Amino acid sequence: MGIWIGLCVIGLAGMGWALRIWTRRERKYESSATVASAYDSWTNDQLLENLWGEHVHLGFYGQPPQPRDFRAAKEDFVHELARWSGLDQLPHGSRVLDVGCGIGGSSRILARDYGFDVLGISISPAQIQRACQLTAPGMTCRFQVMDALDLQLSKGGFDAVWSVEAGPHMPDKQRYADEMLRVLRPGGVLAIADWNRRDPKDGKLSRLEAWVMQQLLNQWAHPEFASIAGFQGHLIHSRYCGGPVDTADWTQATLPSWLDSIVEGLRRPGAVLGLGPGAVLKGLREIPTILLMRWAFNHGLMQFGVFRSRG
């Protein structure tokens, strides 16, 4: 009993430190440079990679969700989105653009398991450097620093465009949609997954919801979240859109990811402790935002939307 009381005291003390650090060090969106800086920092300290592996995105636990290893669920997510979007039907050698590729986890799966020729882009130089380091010689994927709102790529040059959890960092959602569709060839596959807010038509935010929303924006360098219907509209109204835009809500299928992302620290304590005291503090600093994210997705303030279309 004494051990449990001691662990609770340590846990509460840690949460107290986390809350103090959290409230003092917001990461508000100011420009694309602040997004790049945040991801450079997360990549260089290696905390997320050590805890979560090569995929800095949510996992797919099934519909209805079932208990699943966190890292395995992340790989399952890639395959499920490929299947749902129709990306898996493209022939080997198809050119795929991964917008907001992180450290390249999805890009490597798309190259290894589907035989695609993948270009992954990120605004973070540190992410691109790490993606290159993690990619074995001979794999058909490469990486480049690039702004998703100003793709230095030719029109119609890709058979598919893939983007996971990048949209919240985009200040201009219409341009984000336009750029992805612009580089997609006619008839090509678009596959997007994103964090989305509840549509304003579905109810005004309460005072509590407004406060939570502001924290979700401020803590992780987000200028704004689009709703599922809102971003679907951006895709439909793009002059480059060549077909219908389908959507689905994967909130429940991905919801266990939030608590699992914290529990990973208990499953793999060496992943954090081995990086030193600074990493422990950084890990504690992220817990309040993760818990707020979980609350928002569980209470309908946020939704996990997936989108598919053709160029």
Q: Layout of SSEs?
A:
Elements: H1 2-24, H2 32-44, H3 47-52, H4 70-85, E1 95-99, H5 105-114, E2 117-122, H6 125-134, E3 141-145, E4 158-164, H7 173-182, E5 184-197, H8 207-219, H9 228-236, E6 246-249, H10 251-254, H11 256-267, H12 269-273, H13 277-298, E7 302-310
Parallel strand pairs: 1-2, 1-4, 2-3, 4-5
Antiparallel strand pairs: 5-7, 6-7
At a glance:
This protein has 13 helices and 7 strands. With 311 residues, it is α/β, with parallel strands linked by helices. It has one domain: Vaccinia Virus protein VP39 (Rossmann fold, 3-Layer(aba) Sandwich), CATH 3.40.50.
Q: In percent terms, what proportion of residues is strand?
A: 15-25%
Using the coordinates above, name the CATH class. Alpha Beta
The major pleated sheet works out as:
7 strands, mixed
Task: Measure the end-to-end span.
Answer: 61 Å
**Quaternary structure type:** single chain
User: What is the total number of structural domains?
Assistant: 1
CATH architecture descriptor name: 3-Layer(aba) Sandwich
- Structural class based on helices, strands and sheet pairing: alpha/beta
What proportion of the residues is helical, as a percent range?
40-55%
Envelope shape: globular
Tally of alpha and pi helices: 13
Find the CATH topology: Rossmann fold
Instruction: Give the rounded overall mean pLDDT.
Output: 91
Low-confidence stretches: 1-18
Pattern of helices and strands: HHHHEHEHEEHEHHEHHHHE
Question: Numbering strands along the chain, what is their spatial order in the largest sheet?
Answer: 3-2-1-4-5-7-6
- The count of β-strands is 7
Output the radius of gyration: 19 Å
